[in-house]
Amino acid sequence: MSLPTTQKQWLVQGTDKGLDGLVYQDAPVPQVGDTDVLVKLRGASVNYRDLIIPRGHYPFPLRMPVVAGSDGAGEVVAVGSKVTKWKPGDKVVTLFNQGHQAGPVTVAASTTGLGGCIDGTMRQYGVFDQNGVARMPKNLDFVEAATLSCAALTSWNALYGLKRLQKGETVLVQGTGGVSLFALQFAKAAGATVIATTSSAEKAEVLKKLGADHVINYREDPNWGETARKLTPNGEGVEHVIEVGGAGTMTQSLKAIKYEGVISIIGFLGGANPKESTLEALSHVCTIRGVYVGSKQQLEEMVAAIEQHDIHPVVDKTVFTLDKVKEAYDYMWEQKHFGKIGIKIE
Fold this sequence. Notes:
single chain, alpha/beta, seven-stranded mixed beta sheet, six-stranded parallel beta sheet, 16 strands, about 25% strand, oxidoreductase activity, NAD(P)-bd_dom_sf, ADH-like_C, Alcohol dehydrogenase-like protein
């Protein structure tokens, strides 16, 4: 097929202008190197990091200017002369940290994040090293698959990266963001019990439909950590906590955790200044672990599980097109979404 020479893309020009520094522009379709693949991107999705990078609040390495977006799915349309893993027509998803292939993340790998250090996915065509993409799940469409790169892989790493989730264990997930909903689905597929927290009866019903065994309204029950603990066998606590609130929720997460359990810190929506001493990990005999997405090996393992259990991401009812990315960012900033926000790319 003949390929165009130009494309549309969203460029983050810097971190001092807010969304005014996010520009929709024409750009050349990138050239394919010897070990690269050119992907016609068909879907992308929005993460909280996308909103805070232009605002200057992102705590990880950045190289400006950079094409926005970390999550993408599409079709390989050209390959370099030394590519052995892919052919035109293959459907793929992007790996967030392109250099994180297996094992623990390294400092070097942390500087290979799409949409921060390397040009990302909010564009029509992207070039990636052949090791920077993975096979797309056969049971998902492009927009669904585009939600996997960060939120899904982060939750998979939280449940399997340090101390692997076992059937019969209990997982506590906080809220209805993308990471929490993926963790709920992955935990149920593994035969675990899931306790979920939320702030409304409407969201509670959706969580139950997704398989949550218990739902606690944290506005009505400020001591929800102790309540969660009481729901576990012999009141011993939960094996895994998906911690997204940060300083606002850590006190309750510590009340809920079982001896030798793992609290995986994903975000800091409730604030980044810790109110709890890290020495609390000793008195609660638990591991408190920061999770920075995951590796290519974990991505491939997760894709296989998604296919095996026919898991479908929770995608918000409003799907945006590429030219409406700023509107999608505002939609997320105003917390109008439920689940992941999808971007359809033509």
